[in-house]
Specification:
The chain is built from 5 helices and 15 strands. By secondary structure, the protein is an alpha+beta fold. Bound molecules: magnesium ion (MG).
Length: 264
């Protein structure tokens, strides 16, 4: 069942989203060669809790173990759900920081892929095209369109630039819980799928591979998703409310991009 949110609820999700954007920016501020992803996770968790929020990824049940951290931090060929660890961030890495925040019962979800220092031009292009595909998908977030319109727009932009979208993972409804209906795939056929209605809140999140679309799920931790060919993947995500006039993007990259620009 798709939960429609009232205007008041959407304003409360917007507050959650503001905390989330500031959290990702705060994590980004600490990204540099030589820090561990576990350290970045601590920064994110502390910031969320200091500001009255709850990091919802922590403790989510998994096939092998619950997700142990507040932030999903995925480096290079890791697509999503990277577990923070003693791994060092290195010059030339791309680091995706994906966080879900609950503030006063209202839930937002966002991800940003940071480039660390001198990143190859191929990886810079991957990040740029993935972010473009997010906004192209968001443009379709209008009452009367269908979920397939979003996925089709994302897929088309990525494929025409020579990239591939992951099939096994997708965006989703969000706002009162971390994962609500409907699923929002990053591929699709225009005019198909659930109808977008005013009051729907969804997370749109292109996960885009430089090489083949195939991914593998870690058999060690049950969480980390990597590209099968070892090539890099990028991931950008916003939480958006559907209105009659188009997308009302609740999360923001404004604070994050001020930080991101200083990283390279
Ligand atoms: Mg998400």
């Amino acid at each position: 069942m798709i939960l429609l949110k009232t205007k008041e609820e959407i304003e409360l999700i917007r507050k959650s989203a503001a905390l989330l954007g500031n959290t990702i920016a705060e994590v980004g501020r600490h990204i540099r060669p030589g820090v561990t992803t576990a350290f970045l996770d601590q920064i994110g968790e502390q910031y969320i809790r200091d500001n009255g929020g709850i990091p919802l990824c922590k403790g989510v049940a998994g096939e092998i173990k619950p997700f142990p951290a507040a932030c999903c931090i995925s480096v290079n060929d890791e697509v999503v759900h990277g577990i923070p660890s003693e791994r060092f961030v290195e010059e030339g890495d791309i680091v995706s920081v994906d966080i879900v925040v609950d503030l006063n019962g209202y839930v937002s979800d966002s991800c940003y892929t940071f480039m660390v220092g001198q990143v190859s031009s191929e990886m810079q292009r991957l990040c740029r095209v993935t972010k473009e595909s997010l906004y192209i998908g968001l443009d379709k977030c209008k009452a009367g369109n269908r979920v397939g319109d979003i996925g089709h727009a994302v897929q088309l932009h990525c494929e025409k630039n020579g990239y591939n979208v992951v099939r096994e993972l997708c965006g989703h409804g969000v706002g009162l819980k971390m994962h609500e209906s409907p699923n929002v795939p990053n591929f699709g056929v225009p005019g198909t799928g659930p109808l977008l209605k005013e009051g729907m809140v969804i997370a749109v999140e292109p996960m885009v591979c430089m090489g083949s679309k195939n991914v593998k799920f870690s058999s060690d931790d049950g969480w980390t998703v990597r590209t099968k060919d070892g090539k890099p993947a990028a991931h950008y995500e916003h939480t958006v409310a559907i209105t009659a006039n188009g997308p009302d993007i609740l999360t923001s990259f404004d604070a994050i991009e001020k930080v991101a620009e200083s990283l390279h």
